[in-house]
Each structure stands twice: as C-alpha cells, then as structure tokens.
Amino acid sequence: MVRAGPYKLFREYRKGKGKLRDRLIVALDTDDGEDIAWLSGTLVDMVPWIKLGFQAFSTLGTEAFAWLSGKGHQIFLDLKFHDIPNTVARDVGTMTKHGAHMINMHASGGLEMMQAARYSADNAADAAKIPSPVLLGVTILTSIDEPGFQEHFGSKRQLTEQVVHLAKQSKKAGLDGVVASPLEIEPIREACGNDFLIVTPGIRPEWADAGDQRRITTPAEAINRGADYIVVGRPIIEAEDALEAAGRILDEMSGVKD
Ligand code: C5P
C-alpha cells in the first residue's frame, strides 16, 4: 500500500521543509457553485488545501475531486461520518475511490467504526492504486465549551480528558490524527506523540468575529502550539477580499516563534 501523499508531506513539514501555506485549510462552506469555483480558483496558488463540507459536496458531488485536484487542490472531505462500522467503512471506501485526500469521522462512533474505516480506505486505495487518504477522528466540536459539555454530554470526564480519550482511540484504530481545538494540542501530543496529526478549526484572527466558535486561538497561537494544519472558513470566505484575508492569515502564521 502506498501511504498518503499528504501524510508524507506532513512528515516533511515536521522536518522543517514544508511551507506554511500547506498547513492552512480553507473551509468552502457554501452551496453556491460559482462561489466555490471563484474561491478555489482565486486561492489555489496561495492555499492548496480546501475543505468541502455538506454544502459544497451536495452542490458539486464526487466530480469535485477530479475537478479540484486538476486545478492543484488537495481536498479535505469534511462529512464527519458517524454510523455503524459497516456503513462508515463503505462511505469512506467510496470517498477514497473518488479521490478525497483527507476524510473525517466522529471518533465517538467508536473504535470498531474507525478501524473499519481505515481498513476500507486502505483497500479502496490499493484497488485504485492511489495513496490512502489521511483519516481523522473528530473529537469534541470547537463550538462546545466546558459548561456546554458538562450540561449536554453527561460525561464523567472534563472536556479535555474526553478529547484526549477520543484521540487515543483514534490512534489505536489506525487513524492518522484528529480534529481538535488548538487549546488541546499539548495533552494530545503527550498522549499520542509527534507523528499524530492534529488539525485545528476554532481559528480566529484578532480581526475576525468568533461567531459560534468557543475553544479558539489566533492562527499564530495554533501554529505555535504545534497544530499540523489549521482550518479557517468564515474569516476568509466571508471577507471582502478572500485572497487578502488568506494572505493576512499566512503572514500571521509565519510570525511564529520557533
Ligand atoms: O467559519 P469557521 O472558520 O468557523 O469554519 C470552521 C470549519 O471547520 C467549518 O467548516 C466547520 O464545520 C469545521 N469544524 C470542524 N470541526 C470542529 C469545528 C469546526 O470540522 N470541531
């Protein structure tokens, strides 16, 4: 089996060879096909990674993978699968076959579900002779804060403990990493090591509105804390000038202290 292109690239970033622009993922959260085409075309030279959620995917369908890859994009398919193992395995296998480079699922779906997804992705990639995608477990959404977690989840754990628990389960299942808040990077690294990817939404430059996000940091702080990738949506796609906003964020990311 060929290991994923993005994962291999990630290892190079860790060796200091990678570019920061390869660690920014822009969330194209819109169902407007013209907007998607415009945003992806405008951003591609500055930001190769884009994230497609339900809105974009429902508009573009699986043809999006060949189309956007052909333009030079890497695609994070953010459908946050959460179902019985057999269904998620088939979902992930299908999306692998169509060419998604990064795929996520809710880690709370369980170890067996995540193991089935890994197995299915690797098999589908082998059959298609393409690299297996990066698979990520979504821990606790960054829109949830500690009081909300305690009130709605009925867990005996604190929020961060639950995030670390789900990260360990994701690793045990053979996933490549997790989606978590930048505020949780340190305990996840401690539990799962340096070769485990941490992808962080909940990113807000000081000049942008937090909106519904709760466990947030600035782009520079997330990179300083050791995020492998940061995910940014509204501060870029709702900016008057998306290219300028992406450039500002990349500048902030490069202001990191090593
Ligand atoms: O607009 P904003 O920057 O808040 O967008 C963040 C993106 O990251 C959204 O597409 C959202 O669905 C996604 N997200 C995620 N996991 C989280 C929080 C947000 O994938 N824990």
Give the class-level CATH name: Alpha Beta
CATH architecture: Alpha-Beta Barrel
What class would the helix/strand composition place it in? alpha/beta
Helix content: 40-55%
Beta-strand residue fraction:
5-15%
User: What overall geometry do the principal axes of the alpha carbons give?
Assistant: globular
**What string gives the helices and strands in order?**
HEHEHHEHEHEHHEHEHEHH
Strand order of the largest sheet: 1-2-3-4-5-6-7-8
Molecular structure report:
The protein is of the alpha/beta class. It has a single domain, classed as Aldolase class I (TIM Barrel). It has helices at 5-14, 33-43, 54-60, 63-71, 85-98, 111-128, 146-153, 159-172, 185-192, 219-225, 234-237, 242-254; strands at 24-27, 49-52, 74-81, 102-106, 134-138, 177-179, 197-200, 229-232. It has an 8-stranded parallel β-barrel, surrounded by 7 helices. Strand 6, helix 9 (185-192) and strand 7 form a beta-alpha-beta unit. The radius of gyration is 17 Å and the shape is globular. Residues 1-17 have low confidence and may be disordered. Cytidine-5'-monophosphate (C5P) binds next to strand 8.
Q: What's a quick, concise take on this entry?
A:
The protein is of the alpha/beta class and 258 residues long. The protein has helices at 5-14, 33-43, 54-60, 63-71, 85-98, 111-128, 146-153, 159-172, 185-192, 219-225, 234-237, 242-254; strands at residues 24-27, 49-52, 74-81, 102-106, 134-138, 177-179, 197-200, 229-232. Mean pLDDT is 92; it is low at 1-17.
